[in-house]
Design brief:
This protein is of the alpha/beta class. The protein has 18 helices and 13 strands. Helix content is about 35%, strand content about 15%. Helix 7 crosses helix 8.
């Protein structure tokens, strides 16, 4: 029990000072501020080297160790002498200068401060500390703490409590909307597939990437309707997490292609974790929608076999998380630098959330990221990070209708700042916002579920309506709602179209 609590405290104290510039002296003291108790808890790094030093020390930790008969010290020292995985050193070395790492370190730096030092967000200090800690063999948590430059680090647990409170507040508006809107009914009888589904794989060479894009294709063995749907996965994910959507839609006659985005998929994540590659760079903001455009180009030009009769001139794109952001780019929502420049450096912005770590890492890629494609007639964007990348008014030139879906319990991309507020400015053109009670950032994905998971009926209803609407599918003032009143809900997670209850500026 003690080691688990200490692991959180020590790792927080350890990570925060790694934001600081190198100093001549090593870290001597950690101060943990506990506002609720109006007290500070002092740890002297020199007392952590062995049980005897701790037992005779003068810090608060030494007093606690003596009061526990040495039990605290034994558990703590066992924790501190655990080896740091070698992959952590490789990650630090390969990630110096990465915008994504810089943003993650910026957030961590708000939890603690190293007195008298300015921030270093490049990751260089972490790398240098790991090198120093490894001089006498495999680094441990203790040798890494001792290698941190500076005199004293202050870890503010009250700051962590503020962040947790802010995360809860970022879901309040969504909860109110769900409470005020009757959920959509589910179908009375399950929707059965009309066709057997054929699964195949392709590799597509593209000019904008060094390696081919892998494509998972799901299509009706016979009796297809000739319509094309693309599904784009999120950061460090892959087609397998969304196969259920493809299977479900293909069973109703659609040809569904799920591309793997090689610069930010699950394989790339493993390379990052083992130090073989840096985190995704800002160029991926433009490369991902280019992947989707390349797939449409290949189908339209007949460069992929097995797509006879499939029309790539009118396409629906479905995306999750970063994949949903890519879908919105193709729909014509234009990224802009303004909010990224103005707000990414504000630790106390009430709308700051975990997705800002990713959004703020895109800043250097914004200029090349406007990639509208008129072949896309509608998109379904599930949990997209958008509030900084797409500021107010950036969707006025949409060429595709937008269904935005957000989970009421999503703490990664929280619904209020990332879905409710943006849609208040973008709902006039016939776009819709559906909120899912109990939905979080991960449980809305279908996995391999052949019934499309929680969102399967909703995505099918939206896709059916988009292709059936002809020219009326395009966004316009007073456009007809594409969603039917009922039949697309879920008995497991109630969901509601809350668009008409939004405050429209």
């Amino acid at each position: 029990m003690i080691s688990g609590a200490w692991r959180g405290l020590l790792l927080g104290a350890l990570l925060s000072p790694l934001m600081a510039m190198p100093a001549a002296r090593a870290l001597e003291e950690i101060v943990i501020k506990i506002p609720l108790l109006d007290t500070d808890f002092t740890v002297r790094v020199g007392e952590l080297r062995d049980p005897r030093t701790l037992r005779t020390g003068t810090s608060d930790l030494a007093e606690l160790d003596r009061a526990s008969g040495g039990a605290v010290g034994r558990e703590l020292l066992a924790l501190l002498n655990q080896p740091v995985p070698l992959s952590l050193a490789q990650v630090a070395n390969g990630s110096v200068g990465s915008p994504l790492l810089e943003q993650a370190m910026f957030v961590l730096s708000s939890l603690g401060t190293l007195e008298g030092r300015s921030p270093d967000l490049s990751g260089k200090t972490l790398r240098d500390a790991l090198i120093k800690a490894s001089k006498n063999g495999e680094p441990t948590l203790l040798s890494l703490i001792e290698a941190i430059p500076g005199k004293r680090v202050i870890l503010n647990l009250g700051r962590a409590r503020q962040i947790v409170s802010r995360m809860a507040q970022q879901r309040q508006r969504a909860e109110q909307l769900l409470a005020a809107t009757p959920p959509a009914n589910a179908r009375v009888a399950p929707l059965l597939p009309r066709n057997d589904v054929l699964q195949s794989s392709y590799r597509l060479a593209v000019p904008h990437r060094a390696q081919p894009i892998e494509l998972e294709v799901l299509q009706p063995r016979q009796g297809g309707n000739g319509h094309l749907v693309l599904v784009s996965h999120g950061l460090w994910d892959g087609p397998a997490s969304f196969q259920g959507w493809g299977t479900f839609l293909a069973g109703q006659g659609y040809t569904v292609i799920l591309p793997r985005h090689p610069g930010s998929d699950k394989t790339q994540q493993q390379e990052v974790l083992t130090g073989e590659a840096p985190p995704p760079g800002p160029e991926e903001l433009a490369l991902r929608p280019k992947d989707l455009k390349a797939v449409m180009d290949a189908v339209e030009a007949g460069r992929l076999g097995g797509f006879i009769g499939v029309d790539a001139s009118h396409v629906v794109v479905i995306g999750h998380s970063w994949g949903a952001t890519s879908a919105l780019q193709l729909a014509g929502v234009r990224p802009k630098q303004g909010d990224l420049l103005a707000r990414c450096g504000k630790k106390d912005d009430p709308s700051r959330n975990l997705s800002w770590t990713l959004q703020c890492s895109w800043l250097k890629g914004v200029d090349q990221a406007a990639l509208q494609d008129s072949r896309v007639i509608a998109v379904a964007a599930v949990s997209p990070p958008v509030s900084l990348l797409f500021p107010r008014g950036s969707g006025q030139n949409l060429s595709a209708r937008v269904l935005l879906v957000s989970g009421g319990r999503d703490w990664v991309v929280p619904p209020d700042p990332e879905a409710v507020t943006p849609m208040e400015w973008g709902s006039r053109l016939g776009n819709r916002l559906v909120l899912v009670q109990g939905g979080d950032h991960f449980n809305l994905r279908p996995g391999s579920s052949a019934n499309g998971g929680v969102l399967g009926p909703l995505l099918l209803a939206w896709t059916n309506a988009a292709f059936a609407s002809g020219a009326a599918v395009r966004p316009s003032q007073g456009a007809v709602n594409l969603l039917p009143a009922n039949g697309w809900g879920s008995a497991l997670m109630p969901m509601a179209d809350v668009t008409d209850k939004l405050n429209r500026p």
